[in-house]
Specification:
By secondary structure, the chain is mostly helical. Helices cover 54% and strands 6% of the residues. Strand 2 and strand 3 form a beta hairpin. The model has no long low-confidence stretch (mean pLDDT 88). Bound molecules: zinc ion (ZN).
Length: 158
């Protein structure tokens, strides 16, 4: 079940990428551009501080967000994948690391919010793709109050 949601999440992101006309978020950029983007988006209050960013060795093929920050594979140096990893950082901050599914409904809701706000990807397009892919998602916007309410609801419901 967990793997199925993860695969649906990856499939959703792939489909959103395929259908987005502005290709800029998917093109690889240099380290400086990634850092500038991180400073810009994390100072809007979602995280309170900017996580560290490390680029993995040549040949690494996967990226992840951990306690020490975000580690990107060299082939993943674009704003779309970086935003995916930032969504993991925000989920960990708001819900507690390991307390919700890594690519679960909270993660998808936060990623969707970040893709819309920071990359200009259409929410309608993302919602359509999520529904067509039967992806479980929370329809969130990251205003602080909304997020506090979302976390409170989640805590009450568990
Ligand atoms: Zn992920």
């Amino acid at each position: 079940m967990r793997d199925s949601q993860r695969q649906k999440c990856y499939d959703w992101e792939w489909e959103v990428k395929r259908l987005t006309e502005d290709r800029a978020p998917f093109h690889n950029v240099d380290y400086k551009a990634l850092r500038e983007y991180m400073y810009k988006v994390t100072w809007q209050g979602d995280l309170g501080k900017t996580p560290a960013l490390t680029i993995k060795r040549a040949g690494s093929t996967w990226s992840h967000a951990g306690w020490d920050g975000i580690r990107l594979a060299p082939s993943h140096m674009n704003l779309y994948i970086l935003t995916h990893e930032l969504a993991h950082c925000i989920v960990a901050r708001w819900f507690g690391r390991g307390r919700v599914q890594a690519h679960g409904r909270e993660f998808v809701g936060i990623a969707m919010h970040l893709y819309e706000r920071n990359l200009g990807i259409s929410r309608e397009l993302m919602l359509d793709c999520a529904r067509q892919g039967n992806l479980d998602f929370a329809n969130l916007r990251l205003r602080k109050k909304d997020m506090e309410d979302a976390v409170a609801r989640w805590r009450r419901g568990r």
